[in-house]
Specification:
The complex is a heterotrimer.
Chain A (H helix, E strand, L loop, with lengths): L2 H28 L5 H5 L7 H10 L6 H13 L14 H5 L2 H30 L4 H15 L2 H15 L18 H39 L2 H8 L4 H30 L2 H6 L5 H10 L3 H29 L1 H4 L2
Helix pairs in contact in A: 1-4, 1-14, 6-7, 6-9, 6-11, 7-9, 8-9, 9-11, 10-11, 11-14, 13-14
Chain B lengths: L4 H17 L12 E7 L3 H16 L3 E7 L1 H9 L5 E7 L6 H6 L17 H10 L5 H18 L2 E14 L2 E2 L16 H4 L1 E2 L5 E6 L14 H10 L4 E3 L5 E3 L2 E6 L5 E6 L13 H14 L7 H7 E8 L2 E6 L6 H6 L6 H4 L22 E7 L3 E6 L12 E6 L3 H10 L4 E2 L6 H8 L4 E16 L9 H10 L2 H7 L4 E3 L6 H4 L14 H10 L2 E2 L8 E2 L1 H4 L33 H24 L1
Parallel strand pairs in B: 1-2, 1-3, 7-16, 7-17
Antiparallel strand pairs in B: 3-18, 4-18, 4-19, 5-6, 8-9, 10-11, 11-13, 12-13, 14-15, 15-16, 20-21
Helix pairs in contact in B: 1-20, 2-16, 5-6, 9-10, 15-18
Chain C lengths: L2 E11 L4 E12 L4 E5 L6 H9 L6 E10 L2 E2 L5 H7 L4 E4 L3 H4 L6 H13 L3 H15 L15 H12 L6 E5 L7 H18 L2 E6 L2 H7 L2 E6 L2 E7 H6 L4 H9 L48 E3 L2 E3 L6
Parallel strand pairs in C: 3-8, 3-9, 6-7, 7-8
Antiparallel strand pairs in C: 1-2, 1-4, 4-5, 9-10, 10-12, 11-12
The chains are: A mainly alpha, B alpha+beta, C alpha/beta.
């Protein structure tokens, strides 16, 4: 099987999966109990004719089959329906825009930083396995990995936000400020991002560290590592050329899964810091039973996961030549 | 695998036996006095109160199984009347229309507010009369009579009104306290009169989530309504006792038949875009709501129902004709957000995009829309051409902060002034009350907690049971357990909100467990099997009944015969279960052995 | 003399106890010579090889002894001197060539990198040298850019050998170089080793458990048992007239290499427990000719009939 055929096959299976998810996504929210108009307007006193109008507005007056066809057709046109909680605002507009950008920036940078720090530490720890530094790093990782992010965020807010007054307590920007330049805005935004980012980086590092360390330790037992050492190569070549590339293979799938976070956000952290991202949106949509928004987010998430997995498969094939012929 | 099959069958049967045996346990006609009590899992007050109630009822021999459920599960069950009992907060607003919705039999439909399926033709008649008269005094009298009947029947037990606990940052002064607290959609006074001793001119109010929908026609939650109350004027406003005071209308008259209200508007009122506000705008607003069947706003449901036609004899006079009289018609039309005709006549879909953009957010209120940064904050500025007293603050910012804890920290730092919703967590309230950096304001909130019965389900079909539960509940203990964040009430119409609409002589059930037990015995409940839980056994209960003592406030009259649990009579004792169980077990073991032997 | 190992003792500290993997081994290899090191698995052959390259795992310690290669005292080399010493002086052909090559790097790259990093080649020269090496070991030079999994087993083994001779080392240690290859390929690889010895003048220490390999390729042979050398002499002599009972048993356990079939006699008894070796001669519990002394005294390696034997029968 050649590389092209391999990619084509993966693409096809991704598309089929995506279609199944779309169908499932529709029906899951239809079998949920309760009258949708009750969740749009939480008022039992609505007159029957008001209720009918609402149903019509949200297309809930049609038979299920019609709704399904309409859902598919609209989906192709990029229309995901209207939000309940943001009364009538298109779901696409609710999800895209500020919220998605907030989550992307926060999660992207947190994951990247955690990945770099965690992987570097993991590589060093694996190389110096059993040393004091290694043991200290393991304990640190296990502790930070198991601390609830919610609690950690609260702690950071209390110490650095309240007592030391170094970081803002909530939000992504300072309220009511007119920015003169873009850079002023960027600086303010990044200042607000410190708290949630540190929280996330701390909670992500442990995972990446342990994963990298274990992955490397596995690689170290391979014969080709002995060859590399016997060849008298420099430590840098041994670690980063021979070990890293092999150890990265399992990390690629992990990173692909982490792409989901770019869409799902980290609900706990976003909540503590009122970081208006998709994680917080999911949380609020669940609380307010805003099914169209949830439906939309799930579609985006499914798309992200599938794309990420597809890309991971391709990257995998590029990094590991064995796969192409698998 | 085949070899073990019989063993698995045996095991499965052994597991099933207890379930088969359960119905046989107590003798069939002696049904235990127990029920499931639903509480709202995310509401700490509801959960704690539910647990206290279960403890208290256990003492008089009633078994209560508390299930803490999420609203997504609980509300549909209430809507479908598929529950035994529930305990949580309902809500009220400045006009007691809920009194009709909660007790009129016509409101007992799926999703209707008569969630307890309370049917009393006499009450129906009184409510019908009270809500179709324009004569306020007559309506009040009818209210009193209906409330007395309801209190006698106890379709639900009112427990307490939650307290609205607000904290203000240091330096802020001169807020107005009224029911629902200093920051509520009914309170137009606080933002106008509040000031800061240190000269800060920006007030920051925290919201727990986004303020949408910002359209005054779609606003259907406290956050959106509060925003609208700042930007849009109403014809009347409320004083601290919720009495109507002149606002856009400097005066009004109601005709004797209660079918016509005439509002006289202030002169020289301007919209935020500088255009003059006239009676045309008011008439347009009312007609728009009626035609579009608008779902937002405060009393729009009644407006759509009541409005017949609007006349505008001149620029400053609005005459509203009603289809039928309504005792609260002044509030319905008076407390509606008035929108500018020149903008809204172009808006077809009233919920979107009729918000967010400044060109749509034109009102005539004391504050005008500046900008909304989605998910972050909403900025309002003082409208200097407003007709009334100029607010002391220049800017009002609504800031979204998810967590109560970080809100309190920001108030302590002075970054936030106060918040929209009162604090809910008793632990946080306790901490805030003793924090020297905060100014704490406590008022009556709009949430009334109640213990509701499904009046169509046994044992709540028996009036004595409902009354006995009322006697068995010690509301003082509940409120104490809740760190005193509630004010006990025995009324169905709250004096704290509605003044003399409440009946001061409504029958009360003072905490009296002895009386509760006595009532239960009279209703035929007695502890047959000695497990501390009462069973329904009328013939066993009667002989030992002590001579009935007269009660002072309530006289539980003998009701029509209460339906008994539907099971056929069988001469049996509790031992029957054991015997049956053992026999079944022996048969199964023998069968299994025989099966094994055969292999 | 190229390599001289004297009284080498390498012990492993394990959870179960101390394993004396190599316990007093002396061995020498001349220039241009192929020396076979044979023994059952666990007899300490691989530890020997690793010790010479200072590639022992972290739980191993060199208790005593001396390793001198071309006048260099290997055991006293510093970490950085080691890097220079490895591959330039001594290289290794690992057992299982599939795993000895890094699966994610091109085969040529794995050879070229040594040339670049250790012999100062520039990239292009390194790659053309790789092609030469490929030719030398008999692989189509156009395949230098293939990945290991694209090679057959025999090709991989040739590539590994090409890698081992890339820097013209004095000694190549070949640890089970032909195990898991079929017989035809085996003898081709062995022929290649012999040819390289003849052409390049390198010495080879060939480690194997397979006596037929030894017989086919080695000038001299050392037989190891339980961490010691029990017999050491010219291959011809050792095979013709094994002096140590273990050697004899080992040879009779294998089908004849010369073609004539001998009766196949497996060695009686269990391989020794390295954690708890029997006293005296470690082989005595399995030895058909054992007598009192064997269980009491460890036999010294002594010269008998022009070779070295460690057995009380000859003492």
């Amino acid at each position: 099987m050649g590389f092209k055929e391999y990619v084509a096959r993966r693409l096809l299976s991704s598309l089929v999966t995506f279609f199944l998810i779309i169908v499932l996504n529709f029906f899951i929210f239809r079998i949920m109990p309760g009258d949708p108009t009750r969740t749009i307007a939480r008022d039992a006193r609505l007159l029957p004719e008001q209720r009918e109008l609402l149903k019509k507005r949200f297309g809930l007056d049609r038979p299920l089959w019609d709704q399904f066809i309409l859902y598919l057709v609209n989906l192709f046109r990029g229309d995901l329906g209207l939000s309940f909680q943001y009364r009538g605002t298109p779901v696409v507009e609710v999800i895209l825009g500020r919220r998605m950008l907030n989550t992307f920036l926060l999660m992207g940078s947190s994951i990247a930083v955690a990945l770099v720090i965690g992987m570097t530490l993991g590589t060093i720890a694996a190389w110096k396995r059993g040393s004091k530094a290694d043991i200290a790093a393991i304990i640190f990782s296990l502790v930070t990995y198991s601390i609830p992010t919610f609690w950690m965020g609260m702690l950071l807010i209390l110490v650095f936000g309240y007592y030391l007054d170094w970081i803002p307590i909530s939000g992504t920007i300072t309220t009511g400020v007119e920015y003169q330049t873009f850079w002023e805005y960027a600086a303010d935004y990044l200042h607000h991002m410190v708290g949630p980012m540190v929280t996330l980086v701390i909670s992500f590092i442990g995972y990446h560290f342990l994963l990298m360390r274990n992955s490397l330790l596995d690689v170290f037992t391979e014969d080709y590592m002995l060859t590399a050492i016997a060849k008298g190569l420099s430590t840098r070549t041994i670690l980063f050329k021979h070990a890293m590339r092999n150890a990265l293979l399992p990390m690629i799938s992990v990173m692909a899964l982490e792409v989901v976070y770019l869409f799902s956000g980290a609900t706990a952290t976003e909540t503590v810091f009122t970081w208006q991202g998709l994680g917080l949106l999911i949380y609020e949509s669940v609380v307010k039973q805003d099914y169209p928004v949830l439906q939309g987010i799930f579609i985006f998430m499914a798309l992200a996961v599938l794309t990420a997995n597809f890309v991971a498969d391709v990257v995998y094939a590029l990094v590991d030549p064995r796969i192409r012929y698998g | 695998m085949n070899k073990y099959k019989p063993l698995f069958i045996l095991l499965a049967l052994l597991l099933i036996i207890p379930y088969l045996a359960t119905p046989l346990k107590a003798s069939p006609e002696e049904k235990e006095l127990k029920f499931e009590l639903m509480v709202l899992s995310w509401d700490g007050l509801s959960v704690t109160a539910g647990e206290v109630i279960a403890e208290q009822l256990k003492k008089v021999g009633i078994k209560v199984e508390v299930s803490a459920l999420d609203d997504a599960v609980m509300y549909p069950r209430i809507d479908k009347r598929d529950y035994d009992a529930e305990e949580m907060a309902y809500g009220v607003d400045p006009i007691p229309t809920y009194f009709y919705d909660r007790f009129h039999s016509s409101q007992d439909f799926e999703g209707g507010n008569n969630a307890w399926s309370y049917h009393n033709p006499e009450v129906d008649k009184l409510l019908d009369q009270a809500f179709s008269t324009g004569d306020v005094n007559k309506a009040k009298e009818l209210f009193h009579r209906a409330e007395a009947l309801i209190a006698e029947d106890v379709p639900y037990i009112p427990l307490f009104l939650a307290k609205d606990v607000h904290a203000f940052a240091k330096g802020w002064k001169n807020w107005t306290v009224m029911p629902a607290g200093p920051i509520s959609p009914y309170n137009k006074l606080t933002p106008i009169y509040i000031y800061n001793e240190d000269g800060k001119d920006t007030m920051v109010i925290r919201y727990p989530s986004a303020p949408e929908p910002l359209s005054p026609m779609a606003a259907d939650n406290g956050r959106a309504l509060y925003y609208c109350s700042l930007v849009y004027d109403t014809l009347i406003a409320y004083d601290p006792h919720l009495k109507p005071i002149p606002w856009l209308a400097k005066s009004w008259e109601i005709s004797d038949d209660g079918k016509t209200i005439t509002f006289h508007l202030r002169e020289g009122v301007k919209w935020h875009d500088g255009k003059p506000l006239t009676s045309e705008d008011v008439a347009f607003t009312f007609n728009y709501i009626k035609e579009k069947k608008v779902t937002g706003g405060i009393y729009t449901v009644h407006l759509i129902r009541l409005l017949d036609s609007v006349e505008t004899p001149d620029e400053h006079t609005v005459v509203v004709h009603l289809k039928s009289p309504f005792p609260f018609a002044l509030h319905v039309f008076g407390y509606t957000f008035i929108v500018p005709k020149h903008i809204w006549e172009k808006i077809d879909e009233y919920d979107w995009p009729a918000s967010k953009a400044p060109e749509y957010a034109v009102g005539s209120g004391p504050f005008k829309f500046v900008k909304y940064v989605e998910g972050e904050y909403l900025e309002l500025a003082r409208f200097d051409d407003w007709w009334g007293k100029k607010p002391n603050i220049k800017r009002l910012i609504i800031k979204i902060i998810k967590e109560d804890e970080s809100t309190i920290l920001q108030i302590k730092k002075g970054e936030v002034t106060t918040f929209r919703y009162g604090l809910m967590s008793p632990g946080l309230i306790k901490a805030v009350r003793k924090d020297p950096d905060l100014q704490v304001v406590e008022a009556i909130d709009q949430w009334d907690y109640l213990l509701a019965f499904n009046n169509k389900r046994w044992p709540f079909t028996i009036k004595e049971v409902r009354q006995a539960i009322a006697y068995a509940i010690d509301k003082k203990e509940i409120v104490k357990k809740l760190l005193d964040v509630g004010i006990i009430t025995d009324n169905y119409v709250f004096e704290q909100w509605y003044g003399d609409w409440a009946n001061p002589n409504v029958p009360k059930y003072e905490y009296n467990p002895e009386k509760a037990k006595e009532l239960l015995r009279k209703a035929g409940f007695v502890d047959v099997d000695g497990d501390g839980i009462l069973e329904y056994a009328p013939e066993k209960a009667k002989p030992t009944t002590p001579s009935p003592t007269k009660t002072q406030t309530v006289q539980p009259t003998t009701q029509k015969p209460t339906p008994t649990p539907t099971t056929t009579e069988k001469p049996s004792g509790p031992d029957m279960t054991l015997v049956a169980g053992v026999i079944i077990l022996i048969i199964i073991v023998l069968a299994a052995l025989w099966y094994l032997k055969k292999r | 003399m190229l390599l001289k190992v004297r009284d080498l003792r390498v012990y492993y500290d394990t959870v179960a106890g101390v394993v004396k993997a190599v316990d007093g081994v002396s061995l020498s290899v001349e220039r241009g010579e192929i020396v076979g090191l044979a023994g059952e698995s666990g007899s300490g052959k691989t530890t020997m090889a690793r010790a010479i390259m200072r590639l022992l795992p972290s739980n191993a310690r060199i208790v005593s002894g001396e390793i001198v290669l071309d006048g260099v005292d290997v055991l006293s080399l510093s970490e950085s001197e080691l890097k220079d010493f490895r591959w330039k002086k001594v290289s290794m052909v690992f057992q299982g060539a599939m795993n000895a090559l890094n699966p994610v790097l091109r085969v040529g790259e794995q050879i070229a990198e040594v040339l670049v990093e250790k012999a100062g080649y520039d990239k292009r020269r390194a790659w053309s040298r790789v092609e030469e090496l490929f030719k030398l070991v008999g692989i189509d030079p156009s395949r230098t850019r293939d990945y290991p999994h694209e090679f057959s087993g025999g090709m991989r083994q040739r590539a590994v050998i090409a890698m081992a001779i890339a820097l013209n080392p004095d000694l190549v240690i070949a640890d089970e170089p032909v195990t898991a290859l079929d017989v035809v390929v085996q003898s081709k690889i062995l022929d290649l080793l012999k040819r390289l010895r003849d052409e390049l003048g390198i010495s080879v220490l060939l480690i194997t458990h397979d006596l037929s390999v030894i017989a086919e390729a080695c000038d001299r042979t050392a037989i190891m048992y339980a961490g010691r050398i029990v017999e050491y002499g010219s291959t011809e002599e050792v095979f013709e007239e094994p002096l140590h009972p273990y050697t004899r048993a080992l040879i009779s356990a294998f089908p004849s290499i010369t073609g004539e079939r001998r009766s196949f006699e497996p060695i009686k008894g269990d391989p020794p427990n390295m954690l708890n070796l029997p006293p005296g001669c470690a082989f005595h519990p399995r030895c058909p000719k054992a007598f009192d002394k064997c269980s009491k005294e460890v036999p010294e390696l002594k010269e008998v009939k022009g070779r070295l034997v460690a057995c009380h029968l000859w003492g």
